Amino acid sequence: MRRQKIPNYIKKLVYEIYGGGCGRCSSKEDLNIHHEDRDPSNNSLYNLELLCFPDHWLEHNCRPDMLIWYLKQKHIGEIIKW
Ligand SMILES: [Zn+2]
What we know:
Blueprint: H1 8-17, E1 31-35, E2 48-52, H2 53-59, H3 64-75
Antiparallel strand pairs: 1-2
Bound molecules: zinc ion.
């Protein structure tokens, strides 16, 4: 389904729920919001998980396009939202 921008207040809530760290390893760097059901249009709180990029990338079987996207985002200093 079509990707929809996660509203900022939802992002803040997810960030708070996970204590500002990755849900798998507690890293506080390169955080992304992961859609657990793989549906980027489902921005329900229950569907979102805070993950660091390495854990997020693993979760998506190390997709090459995702790595390229990530490096671009990082280069221009934008918050990661996958
Ligand atoms: Zn992690």
